[in-house]
Amino acid sequence: MFALRNLKNGAVIRPLSKHFKTGSSLMREISLLTEVDDNNSTHQMFTVGGKNGFLPRQEPLPELPEKYSALESLLQRMPMQLADGSPGLLASGQFGDAVRDELPIYDVDSLTDQRLLSALFRDYTFAASAYLLEPCDILYRSQSDYGLGRKVLPKNIAVPLVKVSNKINSKPFMEYALSYALYNYKKISDAGGLIYDNLALIRAFAGSESEKGFVLNHVTMVSHSPGLVRFAVGSLNAIEANDREKFNSQMSGLFETYESINKEMEMMWSRSVPEDYVKFRTFIMGTKNQTMFPDGVIYEGVSDNPVTYRGESGANDSMVPLGDNLLQISELMPENPLTAVLRDFRSYRPTNHREFLDYVQAKAQQLRLKEYAMKDANSAAIYLSNIDQIRAFRHRHWNFTKEYIIKHTSHPVATGGSPIVTWLPNQLNAVLDLINEVSNNIDRQKLSESNSVRVEEITKRAQAQKRFLDREVASLKTKFKNQDRTE
Ligand code: HEM
Questions:
Q1: Is residue 141 part of a domain?
Q2: How large is the ipTM?
Q3: Ligand 1 test: best mutation among 391, 397, 480, most atoms within 8 Å of CB?
Q4: What is the atom index within ligand 1 of the atom nearest the CA of 311?
Q5: Which residue range(s) make up the domain with 80?
């Protein structure tokens, strides 16, 4: 059995149970583990830990076993451009026919090995998205219009996909962590680290350098997340022990980790060319709040009732939500339909991530992290610096969205189903407002010299960005329709 102790280096948090509820008295139920039983193949792949952070606890399985060779072969021949430069099935619009002709209904009933189940989930979701969106991609390439997707997911994908999803507790659709990004990398050299030059993609739609850069840049950012997990838990523990010095050092560690993540994010510009993004983006679109699927999708052999799901999106990453929850930003988001989308996004992630984030949110509320930070001017400055890192992330991210998407398409909805010009600014605005509020409540006289300069810089920048953002969104709203529509 696992020992329930505090999180330390190398620890994982137990795949949480049906028993978890948010509420102060139930906090202990998410007791943190100190030992990983890597040999236990029935433990889910995504267990948050001080060693692996938000990445899977074992490297993703890069290739399916021989028994699934028809699926493996389809996925290897699928990308627009294959490794040798020749066109794949999606380039000629032959993927759908190949699925119908070649793919048996694999029996997955007896499977319990989570590493294999996760690989099958990744691969069936790739096949499902390619199948459903292939007609949209063909039309978009000639007319910059997505038209309609396929309405029925055939049973040779739908049936095993739903079964595998149930076994790993996810929705039966392409997902950020479990499919496209965080379960889609392999190391080139086993001995090497999780750095960009040592990583390759397992599956792809376009097969281009830009798609590789887009996906793997997420992975290299998330490779810093073990620090986030350790410092977040450390900050909460420090408040519980009323140890201000430790609180400040843990929050400083958190700040430095976010800074490294933001620095890594900046590499996106050189690793993935903005003009290329719309070429593979079609395949990561969802079926919810998208014109391509006005009636949803029927999963043949599963149910006659159509279903819809949000598409793959970094919005399902856990690093920024961790900051939002720990720093008590989440509860300050405005109550509006856009914020409801933010909450809905949070259900599209591995269960253990979700439970960890819920835990952090409830614990930060219970311990009143913000209030604790604000009681001491220098703690407040470090707290503000962390909020500023969340701002830096959202600000750069908004710039990505303008350069990679808004400049190249008039489609009004992002892959996750959020309105393209209002949703991201909704959260960025809330963070800018919070910076203003926190900064106004810091007693500047009590700050060290360096913290004084830091607070001043952060405040001025946030005020300037706020003025600019408001004008920018007002202008963009005149060009994009239905930007208040979220369902
Ligand atoms: C070219 C690069 C990128 C583009 C064009 C882009 C685009 C978008 C868009 C349009 C959304 C809105 C949600 C939706 O899909 O409906 C979104 C959300 C989000 N993406 Fe990205 N993204 C990029 C890179 C990244 C990276 C590298 C990360 C790192 C993990 C990331 C994390 C997020 C997060 C956390 C959100 C939610 C933002 C919030 O809570 O305010 N994205 N992204």
A1: yes
A2: 0.97
A3: 397
A4: 15
A5: 66-214
